[in-house]
Request: fold
Amino acid sequence: MNPDKTVLSCHISDRGAEPHSPSLIARCAQLAMLLEVSASPKPGNVDREHNYPDTCFEHFVASSVAVYPTLELAARSTGRIGALLRSAVYESSAWQQGGNTHFGAFLLLIPLAMAAGEISKEEYHSGKANFKLGAGEFDKLASRAHSFVRATDCEDAVEFYRAFGHAGVRVNSVEEFDLKDPESTSDLRTQNVTLYFLMEIARDYDLIANEWTTGFGRCLEGARSILEFMQVRNCRAEALAGGLVSICSGTGINEAVVYTFLKLLSRHRDTFIQTKFDIGTADYVSSRAGEILSEWETSGKTAKDFATILPRVQEFDSELLERRINPGSTADIIIAGIFIALLGGLRF
Reply:
């Protein structure tokens, strides 16, 4: 008897003959969070080499593991986005004392996991046993996720406020529906304000809200960047007629995440930095990331040689850590990008 088939049969049987994809989707989301926080050097953010005084690497690891039940519920499309977000925040904080680790990531992962679950269910009922997103289905995933967020209602907005209060998220001050005002939830109900409408209010100064309202385009950009980097880096890791080509050391996933982090940071102003400091600081960080990438790209080197630029990235990392500048919004986008890439078959 094939032991792998036995395990799979038991797994499906335990789920009442349902597809096993919700578990797969939730694990992809977990792994995405773990890979992001592990990637180093990732300028300014907590990683396996650097902690902040009140928030450390282990806090992010604990949060990534703790949130599994909520992620699986999302993949089963069980529950509303607002309630799932609150559940994720409560699960995260119950297992670690480092404060807000993944609030923005949860806002992206939950609708994306719901979309992936819906697509996998359709494929299962059409006879496809194993769920995997083709590259051409990334846009379909984003479109489905956008449909889910557009369908949010007032109760989702109320749950968002509850989750926000519990997580202690840093945000811009707004006069209408102030997230720091406990009376705002009653105003939401009185005016029947949806969570999607709140995101529309914030879209011009919050990267995650902008992803919600524009269709998760940066998340897709991150996924494609990671997959393309891995393909280029590992294309020579094989035997050819006449001998062996040189094989890159390591898996390449760390470099792929660092490269994509710099790439997205250079192209899109990090709104967490903008909120914590100002637009000028956020623009400076994006400009520095772009300069480092430009130096590497104009040298004619490829993904196989990315390690040569890591000392420059480490210098940038040290500068941002010293100034307590952390591109948290970009990290959230990277998590979503890794998640989509994993759904698309990324392995290392």
Summary: The first strand starts at residue 239 and ends at 240.
